[in-house]
C-alpha cells in the first residue's frame, strides 16, 4: 500500500483514525495478534514520519502534534498507540542535531520511516537484568569480527516485534574494558529469532514477545552509540524524558477518557425499575462523575504544561517528567476503577469495553520510569543540599 506524504493531521483525520481503530479494537484484544491493518492506515496517511525533521522528508512535528496523534490512536486502540509511541520516540531521538549515530545510518532509518512507514523500537529489557534504568550491564554481548560485530543475547518485551523493521538493541562489547551502547539490527537479520511468549492481561495486541539473538552479524557502523557503561545512567536527556513521559501518560489518559465516556452513556441510559429514572439522576452517580472529572482535568493541566514547556525548549527535569507520568497514570487507573465501581457487573461483562479499558490502563504502571524509581529520583532531587540544587 502506498505511503502518504508526511503531514500534521487535522481534527477530521484524527477523528477518522479513532473511529477506524475502535471498530476492530475488541477483535485485536481477543485474538492478541498484532494490528497490521492499523499501521497500514497510519502509513497511508504518512503519520509514521510525523516527528522526523523536514530535512529528512518528515513533517517535523512537535510534541504537541505527537501528543494529539497518540491520544487519537489510543482512543481507538491503545496497543497500536503504544507501538506508535516507541516509533515517535526513536525517530525524535534520531532527528536531534546532537544524535551520536553515524550520519548515513541515521538518515537511512529516518528516511525509511518517511518513505516506507518502517517501524523501529529500542530493545533493552532482559531476563536477568530487568529494566536497565535501574543500572547494571546488559547480558547481550557484541563480539568484534574482521568485518563488523556478532551480537548474542535475549531481550524481553519487544513491543511491536511483528511490525518492526529496525531493532535498536542495547548491549555491551566483549572488550577487556567493556563499553555499553546500542546496536542497530534489521528485523530480518540471520540468527534473530522471535520467541512467542506475550500472553498479557492488557495491551494484548502489542506483540511484546521475546527476541533471541544468536551470533547475529551486523556491520561495523551499526554499533551506534558506545560509551562507558556508567555514562548511560549519568547523561539523562530532559527533552527525551519529557517526550516519553508525556506520550505514555497521554496514552493511558486516553484509555481513561474512553472509560469516562462509556460510564456517561451507561448512567444516562440505565433506568432500574426500582428507581424509575436514569442512574444519572442519583447524587452518588453525580459525585462519582465529579471525581472522575477532577482527575481528568488535573491530568489535562499537567500534560498541557509539560508539552508547552518542552515545545518551548524548556523541558521539565527528568525527575519532574517522571512524576508527571506517575501522576497521570495514577489518575487514569483511578478513573477506570471509579467507572467500574459505578457500573457493577455490567462493566465486568466481556461484551462491554470497560473491562478491556481496565486491563489496558493497569499496564501504565510498568513503563519506565516505574513508580518507585520516579518517586526516589524526585525525593533525592528534593533532598539535595541547597548549594547543589
UniProtKB/TrEMBL annotation:
Domain of life, per lineage: Bacteria
The keyword Flavoprotein appears for this protein: yes
Gene3D superfamilies tied to this protein: Acyl-CoA dehydrogenase/oxidase, N-terminal domain, Butyryl-CoA Dehydrogenase, subunit A, domain 2, Butyryl-CoA Dehydrogenase, subunit A, domain 3
InterPro entries noted in UniProt: Acyl-CoA_DH_C, Acyl-CoA_Oxase/DH_mid-dom, Acyl-CoA_Oxase/DH_mid-dom_sf, AcylCo_DH-like_C, AcylCoA_DH/ox_N, AcylCoA_DH/ox_N_sf, AcylCoA_DH/oxidase_NM_dom_sf, Mito_Isobutyryl-CoADH
Acyl-CoA oxidase/dehydrogenase middle domain boundaries: 126-216
Residue stretches making up the Acyl-CoA dehydrogenase C-terminal domain: 255-368
A single MF term (Gene Ontology): flavin adenine dinucleotide binding
UniProt entry keywords in alphabetical sequence: Flavoprotein, Oxidoreductase
Keyword Oxidoreductase included in the entry's annotation: yes
Pfam families named in the record: Acyl-CoA_dh_2 (PF08028), Acyl-CoA_dh_M (PF02770), Acyl-CoA_dh_N (PF02771)
Domain Acyl-CoA dehydrogenase/oxidase N-terminal: 18-88
Protein name per UniProt: Acyl-CoA/acyl-ACP dehydrogenase
Native species: Azohydromonas caseinilytica
Amino acid at each position: 500500500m502506498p505511503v502518504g506524504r508526511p503531514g500534521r493531521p487535522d481534527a477530521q483525520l484524527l477523528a477518522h483514525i479513532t473511529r477506524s481503530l475502535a471498530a476492530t479494537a475488541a477483535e485485536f484484544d481477543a485474538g492478541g495478534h498484532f494490528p497490521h491493518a492499523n499501521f497500514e492506515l497510519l502509513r497511508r496517511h504518512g503519520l509514521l514520519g510525523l516527528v522526523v525533521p523536514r530535512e529528512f522528508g518528515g513533517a517535523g512535528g512537535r510534541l504537541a502534534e505527537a501528543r494529539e496523534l497518540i491520544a487519537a490512536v489510543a482512543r481507538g486502540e491503545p496497543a497500536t498507540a503504544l507501538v506508535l509511541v516507541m516509533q515517535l520516540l526513536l525517530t525524535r531521538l534520531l532527528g536531534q542535531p546532537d544524535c551520536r549515530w553515524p550520519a548515513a545510518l541515521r538518515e537511512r532509518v529516518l528516511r525509511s520511516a518517511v518513505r516506507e512507514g518502517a517501524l523501529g523500537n529500542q530493545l533493552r529489557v532482559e531476563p536477568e537484568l530487568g529494566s536497565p534504568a535501574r543500572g547494571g550491564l546488559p547480558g547481550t554481548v557484541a563480539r568484534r569480527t574482521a568485518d563488523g560485530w556478532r551480537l548474542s543475547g535475549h531481550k524481553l518485551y519487544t513491543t511491536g516485534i511483528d511490525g518492526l523493521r529496525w531493532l535498536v538493541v542495547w548491549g555491551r562489547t566483549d572488550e577487556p574494558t567493556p563499553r555499553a551502547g546500542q546496536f542497530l539490527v534489521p528485523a530480518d537479520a540471520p540468527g534473530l529469532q522471535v520467541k512467542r511468549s506475550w500472553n498479557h492481561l492488557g495491551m494484548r495486541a502489542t506483540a511484546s514477545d521475546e527476541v533471541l539473538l544468536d551470533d547475529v552479524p551486523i556491520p561495523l557502523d551499526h554499533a551506534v552509540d558506545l560509551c562507558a557503561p556508567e555514562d548511560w545512567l549519568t547523561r539523562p536527556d530532559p527533552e527525551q524524558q519529557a517526550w516519553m513521559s508525556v506520550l505514555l501518560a497521554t496514552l493511558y489518559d486516553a484509555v481513561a477518557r474512553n472509560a469516562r465516556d462509556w460510564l456517561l452513556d451507561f448512567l444516562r441510559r440505565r433506568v432500574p425499575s426500582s428507581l424509575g429514572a436514569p442512574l444519572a439522576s442519583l447524587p452518588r452517580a453525580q459525585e462519582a462523575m465529579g471525581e472522575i472529572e477532577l482527575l481528568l482535568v488535573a491530568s489535562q493541566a499537567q500534560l498541557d504544561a509539560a508539552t508547552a514547556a518542552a515545545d518551548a525548549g524548556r523541558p521539565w527535569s527528568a525527575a519532574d517528567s517522571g512524576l508527571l507520568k506517575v501522576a497521570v497514570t495514577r489518575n487514569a487507573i483511578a478513573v477506570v476503577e471509579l467507572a467500574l465501581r459505578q457500573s457493577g457487573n455490567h462493566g465486568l461483562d466481556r461484551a462491554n469495553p470497560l473491562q478491556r479499558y481496565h486491563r489496558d490502563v493497569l499496564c501504565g504502571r510498568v513503563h519506565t520510569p516505574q513508580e518507585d524509581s520516579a518517586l526516589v529520583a524526585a525525593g533525592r532531587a528534593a533532598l539535595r543540599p541547597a548549594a547543589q540544587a
